[in-house]
Amino acid sequence: MSASDDLNAFVTRCDLGGGDGPLDDLTVGVKDNISTEGVETTCGSKVLEGYEPPYDATAVERLKDAGARIVGKTNMDEFGMGTTTETSAHGATRNPVDTDHVPGGSSGGSAAAVASGDVDAALGTDTGGSVRCPAAFCGVVGLKPTYGLVSRYGLIAYANSLETVGPMARDVETTARVLDVIAGEDDRDGTCNAETDDYAAAVEQPTGDVTVAVPDELVGEGVDEGVRGTFDDALGTLRDEGATVREVSMPSLEKALAAYYVIAMGEASSNLARFDGVRYGPGGEGDGWNEAFADARARFGDEVKRRVMLGTYALSEGYYGDYYDKAQNARALVRRDFEAVLDEADVVASPTMPITPFEIGEALDDPLQMYLADANTTPVNLAGVPSVSVPAGRADDLPVGLQLTAGRFEEKKLLRVARGFEKAR
Amino acid sequence: MEDTERIDSEDVEHVAELARVRLTDDEAEGFVDGFNDVLGYFETLDDVPDDVEAEDDYQNVLRADEPEPSLSQEEALSNADGTEEGYFVGPSVS
Fold this sequence. Notes:
The complex is a heterodimer of chains A (425) and B (94). Chain A is built from 14 helices and eleven strands. In chain A, helix 3 (108-115) runs parallel beside helix 4 and helix 8 packs across helix 10. Chain A has one domain (9-250, 334-424): Amidase signature (AS) domain (Amidase signature (AS) enzymes), CATH 3.90.1300. By secondary structure, chain A is α/β, with parallel strands linked by helices. Chain A has helices at residues 3-7, 58-65, 108-115, 132-138, 172-182, 199-203, 225-240, 253-271, 288-297, 302-314, 320-344, 367-372, 378-383, 411-424, and strands spanning 10-17, 27-31, 69-74, 121-126, 141-144, 164-169, 211-215, 244-248, 347-351, 387-395, 398-405. Chain B has 94 residues and is mainly α. Chain B has a domain at 9-46: Histone, subunit A (Orthogonal Bundle), CATH 1.10.20. Chain B has helices at 9-18, 25-42, 73-77, and strands at residues 83-84, 87-88. Chain B has a two-stranded antiparallel ribbon. Chain B is flat, with a radius of gyration of 23 Å. The two termini of chain B are 40 Å apart. Chain B: This is Aspartyl/glutamyl-tRNA(Asn/Gln) amidotransferase subunit C. Chain B: It comes from Halorutilus salinus. Chain B: Residues 62-94 are annotated as: Disordered. Chain B: It is an enzyme of class 6 (ligase). Chain B: Belongs to the GatC family.
């Protein structure tokens, strides 16, 4: 038994890849919503119990080709919908730093497996913070790449316009090495047409004089005192390394969380329509297809039902303009604010999460409280820019992450600043 | 938008039907408070301007429409609950 078994970090164990290649020294965990040929892929849901994809996701194929050994599928909030990895049909994952606490979510199994030392790296997916949140809560590095840098082919979709596949590891360099392999153009994902680059080599170059913007909106009243203190120390470290830190205002961020949830739920209600028990997953019983589909879909957990229903509601006639149109307008404003700030600064900094990890069970019955914890991560997905969480220290003996965000396709600069911080801390 | 009217369990049941998600009465009742909290929070968006110009920097990615190797019929059907003569078996249309 390994540490991860106690933590419930893995849903399925496997042994794929492992030939010669640039990643042949790494063991890797893959989140359970990323397709692995012949290995059960459930998205943490009873709806996909027994589903064995007939093909590999592009990111998985590239890991295997690079010689990485994929040792298991990691636990996650059902379909990525959660901030704690408690909504999984396979039970909650525990935080290796303190097992009374959640590992964050939705890629909580990936983060826990990396933090416990069970794997060298992992793939997560980030729709509204699902790589960065668990990285922060477990004290590891997690990167959400620019939208369009890593192929989503074989990622079982939740909210296509927001989600990305991203690497997690115990240090920035390993994170960059995995990115080197999984990034770059893929004919099978029309949104992925960017060239890859040598991120790992870029990481070791000197950071130079960087300008760091800190938006007032992300360090305000919602941020725990302990988290704020750790974040201020992190800014001090960056300053000692020669960075110029500037307070800025990004007023659109006040609307970002609501806009994010409207868009994510809307896309989820449409994406998850495919789960009807006919082509994959256990079938439903009932009189006629509506009854049979509704029966198969009764297997969704509560959080998935909630988001599918709220998305259906927000997109329905008479409400669409109030919710979806407004949310898309807010999204355009958020993009603009990021562009304007990143025109003047190299990176935007904030605490990754405004709080330390919830206790197990604490947030499960109060969906809005759980959503509010995503205030600092969701704006990044609306803007499509790259963002990394690096360990910044602890508050109340629990890990705190520093979130750094750069302009589109500026991963080299972003990871260099992250590495500079990691070394100096 | 005006203040959202409070959602009740009948509204939840209606949306559940639209979304083809079967709920028991108790389950529907259990979603009511969360729905109202979240929809109430969405009112944050009320004062977002209607006349934001969307950026036009998107472009279509096209390719030639040429047949390429893909999943075999067998592979495509390999996870189906029921199949017959190379087809998916779905519930009856009533």
